[in-house]
Amino acid sequence: MRGKEAKVTIYDVAKKAGVSKSTVSRYLGGRFHELSPKTQQKIKQVIDELQYRPNNLARGLKSSRSYLIGALVADITNPYTTAILRGAEDVCKQHGYSLLICNSDNQPAKEREYISMLQSHKIDGLLIQTTGGNSDFLETLSENGKTPIVLVDRKIPELPFDTVEIDNRGAVMQAVSYLIKKNYKRIGYFTEPVAHFSPRHERYTGFQEALRLVNPSHPSLEDLFEVDLNDESQLEKKLNTFLSRTSKEPRAIIAGNSVIALKIIIKLKEQGYKIPDDTGFLSFDNPEWAAAVFSGITTIEQPTYQIGKTVMELILKRLADNESPVQTISYQTRLIERESAPGR
Amino acid sequence: MRGKEAKVTIYDVAKKAGVSKSTVSRYLGGRFHELSPKTQQKIKQVIDELQYRPNNLARGLKSSRSYLIGALVADITNPYTTAILRGAEDVCKQHGYSLLICNSDNQPAKEREYISMLQSHKIDGLLIQTTGGNSDFLETLSENGKTPIVLVDRKIPELPFDTVEIDNRGAVMQAVSYLIKKNYKRIGYFTEPVAHFSPRHERYTGFQEALRLVNPSHPSLEDLFEVDLNDESQLEKKLNTFLSRTSKEPRAIIAGNSVIALKIIIKLKEQGYKIPDDTGFLSFDNPEWAAAVFSGITTIEQPTYQIGKTVMELILKRLADNESPVQTISYQTRLIERESAPGR
DNA sequence: TTGTAGGCGTTATCAC
DNA sequence: GTGATAACGCCTACAA
């Protein structure tokens, strides 16, 4: 039992409204001043009756606008990521764009495949939290395809793209000086492997800088730990290294992001350590569970939603005018004080 | 400074390879047996050189396949949702599809707009966690557009669509009998407003059934609380109602999902209640933080990733053959025992 | 204000 | 095996 006409096209609307395709097209394009009120009304009515929806594929083929924005992120399962996407989506919707979301899993190969795929779909813009392994590809996309690309979170020095990030250096600095003011003598910094990821790198070196500012040979200059979370035993080992060598001093831990923070917290629990009695704790990001763990975890909040919004706004801006100079927008973070690092 | 040719089309490839468009098209379509090995090789080479990517818009216009799958969910910010999307994405990628992700925020109006938008993009299939307010629209999409639609999580009785869900009734039953076995005498069930959302409804009534099975006039038949989380004070009020009227008995709380679970936990902490000493606790979903809160929260885990995978598999199946009868796949849940309901 | 006539990049149906 | 050629549904000059 078929419904009405299988597919209704602009031609069907035109016919039924007794006008030509171009006229309907004008209506669709919002060029109302070129149409008589009567025609407008008639077209509107027919569109409603027929439940006509313009075909974006056809539209895009002609106008070379797909109204699709690619969002290529490391991991959509990470709340940090979804918050950003949420911001991006709201702006998209407002402007008639849709988001094509892909996960690279931090694998350059996967990222590359997705870039190709997105290119096929003729995306009008790309939001990317890049693995850093496909600069050549991205440059081609940007130059040949003229596709606006905006980097989020992770920047790439050699690429001349707009970037939205946070002031990572400032953020760690603030964290460190907060802990030092609270009289913690040893501060362990735990991060996922720094590799070539700019935010991890900036936080890592920022941490060192901050310590040196206080004391050029601060003992915690050796309390930096990169841990690969895929390796089950690594975290425990490094955590114990830190805990055992600082057992007699007031100490605190900074987690480089909320993923590793959660792992650390669970490990600490397993081993019977209490926050903040046995060790102070402070985490990057401000995950929803921060208030529910121990007596609340002090965190460094990023304006994630705003970041996503801004990315899309930059893309839209370039879509309107691609000539403005490349810019990097760096947001300040906010330290949310809870009870996990009350001082000693 | 322009790169090479701005856009490279099938025609450019054909010209450079010294063949016709049709031949290249055959190659792209994977019909290798219709091509001489020499031609194949030549085309492959030229494609690489030119970095040619077929234009999906044109391809879709002709073949009426967009290779786009719509994913219309309530809230991408909810970890439950992203886990499902992750499963869906992996299947998509494997088959050359991309995911167009949209948030309805549980608002039928927004959902409706997105359905229209997705229709415009000529999606080849739709994964939807529906608000329930757009059955007419969905039916049109399915009938006229012949677009396979699969409902996730929430079903709609009047719609003849494939559905993937969990056995909600079974899940609560298991939870309740677990708590009763642990000797809890009063069990409070907290849920977001049930309204017309099938999983919430099934859990709600399942809870009642489970109690009646034990005792047709079980006192906790009145311990059901629907709370609107947008109203700041509501949760606190209802929570206190329950806590005060059960203060002298062994009691536990079941949270209908991880969102409300977290809110309850935070409220309990604020007011100085301890889990499990002051009240047992058990939550639907198995959020990442479950192990980090108090001494671990006992949860009902859903196979979220698998659910997403299954949805996409159903869509693909219908894309290949739309004649098979409508089916509902219902997954069993798993109770993950931690320390939040050890019994009294 | 409205209609006519291409053409966007593919695929598919013919011939050769 | 391969090559012309006509759609697909829409947009945009250019005419009227």
TrEMBL record, chains A, B:
HTH cro/C1-type domain residues are: 4-57
InterPro entries (alphabetical): Cro/C1-type_HTH (IPR001387), HTH_LacI (IPR000843), Lambda_DNA-bd_dom_sf (IPR010982), Peripla_BP/Lac1_sug-bd_dom (IPR001761), Peripla_BP_I (IPR028082)
**Gene Ontology molecular function:** DNA-binding transcription factor activity; transcription cis-regulatory region binding
Task: Tell me the keywords, alphabetical order.
Answer: DNA-binding, Transcription, Transcription regulation
| Domain of life according to the entry | Bacteria
Q: Which SMART domains match?
A: HTH_LACI (SM00354)
Pfam families, alphabetized = LacI, Peripla_BP_1
Q: Which residues form the HTH lacI-type domain?
A: 8-63
Q: What is this protein called?
A: LacI family transcriptional regulator
UniProt source species = Heyndrickxia coagulans (Weizmannia coagulans)
Tell me the lineage of the source organism.
Bacteria, Bacillati, Bacillota, Bacilli, Bacillales
